[in-house]
Amino acid sequence: xxxxxxxxxxxxxxxxxxxxxxxxxxxxxxxxxxxxxxxxxxxxxxxxxxxxxxxxxxxxxxxxxxxxxxxxxxxxxxxxxxxxxxxxxxxxxxxxxxxxxxxxxxxxxxxxxxxxxxxxxxxxxxxxxxxxxxxxxxxxxxxxxxxxxxxxxxxxxxxxxxxxxxxxxxxxxxxxxxxxxxxxxxxxxxxxxxxxxxxxxxxxxxxxxxxxxxxxxxxxxxxxxxxxxxxxxxxxxxxxxxxxxxxxxxxxxxxxxxxxxxxxxxxxxxxxxxxxxxxxxxxxxxxxxxxxxxxxxxxxxxxxxxxxxxxxxxxxxxxxxxxxxxxxxxxxxxxxxxxxxxxxxxxxxxxxxxxxxxxxxxxxxxxxxxxxxxxxxxxxxxxxxxxxxxxxxxxxxxxxxxxxxxxxxxxxxxxxxxxxxxxxxxxxxxxxxxxxxxxxxxxxxxxxxxxxxxxxxxxxxxxxxxxxxxxxxxxxxxxxxxxxxxxxxxxxxxxxxxxxx
Length: 501
What we know:
Helix content: over 70%
Mean pLDDT: 87
Oligomer: single chain
């Protein structure tokens, strides 16, 4: 029987899976799309009102930003898995320790990222072979953007905690409020104040502070183990090790993807400003497809974590099938729609026909087959939700990142294959190879670790049922005797006449 759940909470350990997964994923999908709109608003505003150089500057730093923040955001995956596991296992003490450790770490991590962004923006852009015409603008945008890193970390870690119990609606509300503020500030800073890329960077940083304040307030007013009491924040050694054990490999996986994307961005930079601007616009569009599919990756992590904590292993494979299937359907539908209406959508970012033409090349080779990335992410999400993080990172390193780098240093270097389509083709090839390896690894750990556990649980249940049945038989045998021969029962308990007991 399905258990009654509290408000802003989903019981992932009982009842129908697909309906609850969609209930979980849809607000998260909207949140991710809205978060991507932060960057899209930046790109659209500078593209329309500051020119193609500013568009290239803002759009070309995405892979660098991801490289720097993904390691810390990966730890939030560990937070989500641990929180879901302790919540599913009804372990309040460890749940509280995880919440307070995670939120303090988010502040520390955000401060570290701010320092890195301020100090190393220019050298990193130079390392990426960013053109001289774009580099000063890109460095300025990065420095201002990274001032908002502590707020970004607080929001993402806080959201990871709320997701663990199925609450994806309130983070959506918080991000919606921040998104409206971001767009309004973009227009004021760029159109009115003429701050160019500095304006969009400042707007993003300030809006992130708003979303961070809202999620912080939400946790402070939470109930039971999810409540954040600021004076109790400290780094619990065991909880921190648990988060890092799961989160660092996940973060490293994100870093490796970003590193390979930086290599690809460097290859694209060699084709000039127009190609960079077209890639930036196309990347923003296919990013909407990615984050929509990624909602099912996050669902897979939380659902697998809660059910592993509750030892409901029989639900893991159905969860995996529904997460992967939902990601594929989402990727196929949205990827096709974005490509079909690609020229119109790209026209929002730039009026230049050359930029639109370059953007369509990316949509053809990256956006249409994006469902392959959905399979890869959902499969990896299930594995990480079960607590396995190191091997998926190795698979990602070899299957995705390594394959892309090999591709760019072999096939792409052949003169007749030195084209943008050949660069972009490395994406679907790496997704397909990595997805197959991750699916194979899932079935390996399933047979090795979970089939024996399920067999042990089943044997214990059968033994308990057999003991209950024997007790019931004994009770049933005594009951007729008591009913048909009450004098026997009386004599058994009677004292011998004339004697003291």
